[in-house]
Amino acid sequence: MDVKGSETAGTFDFVVSGYADPQRYFSGAADDIRARLLSEGAVVIRAADQCRDPGVFETAIGALGFETRDYVGGSSPRSTIQGKVMEATRTPADWSVILHQEMAYVKSPPEIIAFVCVEPAGKGGESVIGDMRKLERLIDPKTLQQLTDRGLKLRRTLPDQARVNLKPGVKKSWQETFSTASVAEAEVLCRARGWDFEWSGDDLILWQDCISPLRQHPLKAASIWCNQAHFWGAAAMIEWARIDGREQDASELINAHRRSPQLLEAMCFGDGEPLAQDLTLELFHTVRGLERDVDLAQGDILLLDNVQYAHGRRAFSGNRKLNVIIADWAAGQSHAVQG
């Protein structure tokens, strides 16, 4: 086993070469990789070419000691490839993906997210990361106090699959969100998670968990900004489209916000009142200021602590394929808090 570490742009690179048994390699390197990930929040594992195979990738993440999870209730349009391995996103190539912590709108989001580059983009498509430990110091204390006192709750509009393409903004049906075409099964999944919901014709209006803007790290004595208040809401979606140069999308979002705001997602306070547009934009640009690009070559793995670091993507042209796994540190480890 050949493991060489090097500091690169604030993350820590593990360079893999000449290994024939991925499970053995990742098991042997697990302590070093986990320690660096917990300390730094972001790790890049270079040249893990065999992990382009979904089965090998899942084996490798398991060998690191992480407990993989499913994506029920997630907002990104994506499909499962094999086991717990999913495509990174089906967001169109001409869209960027703004910084976010995965599923940070629910009470128990994944603690770990891992990407493997199967095929880099022809042009653009850089992965983007952001250190969310910095955010608490950048947000006005009065704003933070207001969000803490009132809490945050995401309202989502999930259309029926037959009309999902008519929805402005992020296009994801309730069938894809819950991996079922059964209304009864979708309702069972909502109730099991404590999510409020109602049907509007064939469309599902979903209210996900009321959360605090700061989240206690499962293994560290630290509370870290972990939510998507900057992501959802008409103001953020319109600004995002304008930055990308997606003028038609921006126009559709503006019209929907004026005429049918119920069609759009909204980040709300815990009592259901949507956040003001100026607050949403303030948070949007503050988070955007944390962006840092990470170039991933074929076979590279980007491993993130999903509380400490957010992730995103630049727009691109050509083909680009990344696979993803979400996971937790491991069952029963949340008591092992570090200072």
TrEMBL record:
Sorted UniProt keywords:
Dioxygenase, Oxidoreductase
Could you tell me which residue ranges the TauD/TfdA-like domain spans? 20-324
GO molecular function terms attached to this record: 2-oxoglutarate-dependent dioxygenase activity
Question: Which InterPro entries does the record cross-reference, listed alphabetically?
Answer: AlphaKG_dependent_hydroxylases, TauD-like_sf, TauD/TfdA-like
One family name in Pfam for this protein: TauD
Keyword Membrane set for record: no
Instruction: Kindly list the residue ranges recorded as spanning the membrane.
Output: none
Which SUPFAM superfamilies does the entry link to? Clavaminate synthase-like
| Cofactor(s) essential for the protein | Fe(2+)
Which PANTHER family is this protein grouped with? GAMMA-BUTYROBETAINE HYDROXYLASE-RELATED, TAUD_TFDA-LIKE DOMAIN-CONTAINING PROTEIN
This protein's name: TauD/TfdA family dioxygenase
Please name the source species.
Pseudomonas koreensis
